[in-house]
Amino acid sequence: MSGFFADAIVNVEKKDGKYSVKQIQRGKALPLPVQRREVEQVTGYFDTKTLEIGVEVLVLGIILGSFYGNLKDGVMINFNLKLAKGSSKFYLKNGNKLCVRINIDVIFDSLYY
User: Fold this and answer.
1) pLDDT > 70? residue 36
2) Letter string b/e over residues 16-30, b meaning 16 or more CB atoms within 10 A of that residue's CB
3) Contact 94/35 with Cβ under 8 angstroms?
């Protein structure tokens, strides 16, 4: 992907087929710059025969990581960042339609919107 990416360190854990991403505090540091119009960006692939999916997810310019799974089971990514928290879910609807459910709360002035 090209463009601006925020400098952040995240920890990714996988448990019971679900991913959890948390931003690691960097101590004393300037706030992360947010200069993007897109709140979330997704790049990836899915195989129509095996239903395997692989995605790379960015939220507010922060790369959450690369995530893999099967659309039959769905791929769930929960995240908790300094400027946003939420989830992204990739799944099959009616057995033949790729759906993405995005839920993001962006923090401005210590408040979620």
Assistant:
1) no
2) eebbebebeeeeeee
3) no
